[in-house]
Amino acid sequence: MQEMVLNEKQIDEKINVLAKKINEDYSKFQDIPVIVGVLKGAAPFMHDLIKKLNFPMFLDYIQISSYSGTESTGVIHLKKDVSVSIENKRVLIIEDIIDTGTTLKYVVDYLIKKYNPKEIKTCTFIDKKPMRKVDFNPDYVGYTIYENKFLVGYGFDYNELFRNVPYIFVPTKEDISKWDEMLENSK
Ligand code: IMP
Ligand code: MG
């Protein structure tokens, strides 16, 4: 049996809580923040979240890759940089999940070094605690998990599949073998 981690209703509830906090914090600023989503995983979460934010914002995306199958490779590639100017701006990075912490730390360090923003805050939908290798604490977290589970759905992929599934689950060994076969057949 697949383990359901968060269903659609639970996802919506977590996002409401996050949006409330972010609205409280950001509504007091006079300047317009830039919301930067980390592609591709953060897209479903980011697009649900921003609909509930009630202040003006610029939107942008950065694309990073570090995963292969169910394991983080630890090697990070920047595939797409930001395209709006973030120099001297307030930046909020939106990520799907923090696992080892390598990706988000890399994104934050990269953006600070290259563009010198006024402030960088980070928001992740899921904080997966046990695998942390880099000391990094996000400013906003939707949901924390304390076991090392590989998640699929709602942006989380298995070799690029199932990002569209509207809920988050842990696949079974049988799922993985079936998907590997499907992927093999569609090469
Ligand atoms: P980190 O660099 O190890 O923190 O990994 C972060 C990235 O790995 C995230 O942006 C995700 O895209 C991916 N990732 C981490 N855990 C999972 C998972 O359980 N399922 C799918 N992708 C994951
Ligand atoms: Mg990601």
TrEMBL record:
Gene3D superfamilies cross-referenced by the UniProt entry: 3.40.50.2020
GO: which molecular function terms? hypoxanthine phosphoribosyltransferase activity; magnesium ion binding; nucleotide binding
GO CC annotations, alphabetized: cytosol
* Reaction(s) catalysed by this chain's protein: GMP + diphosphate = guanine + 5-phospho-alpha-D-ribose 1-diphosphate; IMP + diphosphate = hypoxanthine + 5-phospho-alpha-D-ribose 1-diphosphate
InterPro entries registered for this protein in UniProt = HGPRT, Hxn_phspho_trans, PRTase-like, PRTase_dom
Could you say which EC number(s) this protein's record lists?
2.4.2.8
> Phosphoribosyltransferase domain: which residues?
2-158
Indicate where this protein resides in the cell: Cytoplasm
Cofactor(s) required, per the database record = Mg(2+)
Gene Ontology biological process:
GMP salvage; guanine salvage; hypoxanthine metabolic process; IMP salvage; purine ribonucleoside salvage
- UniProt keywords, alphabetically: Cytoplasm, Glycosyltransferase, Magnesium, Metal-binding, Nucleotide-binding, Purine salvage, Transferase
Q: Which domain of life is it from?
A: Bacteria
Q: Does the keyword Transmembrane helix apply?
A: no
Q: Identify the metabolic or biological route this protein is part of.
A: Purine metabolism; GMP biosynthesis via salvage pathway; GMP from guanine: step 1/1; Purine metabolism; IMP biosynthesis via salvage pathway; IMP from hypoxanthine: step 1/1
Pfam families, A to Z: Pribosyltran (PF00156)
Statement: the UniProt record of this protein carries the keyword Iron? no
Job of this protein: Purine salvage pathway enzyme that catalyzes the transfer of the ribosyl-5-phosphate group from 5-phospho-alpha-D-ribose 1-diphosphate (PRPP) to the N9 position of the 6-oxopurines hypoxanthine and guanine to form the corresponding ribonucleotides IMP (inosine 5'-monophosphate) and GMP (guanosine 5'-monophosphate), with the release of PPi.
Family, as annotated: Belongs to the purine/pyrimidine phosphoribosyltransferase family.
Name recorded for this polypeptide: Hypoxanthine phosphoribosyltransferase
Q: What are the leading ranks of the lineage? A: Bacteria, Bacillati, Bacillota, Bacilli, Bacillales
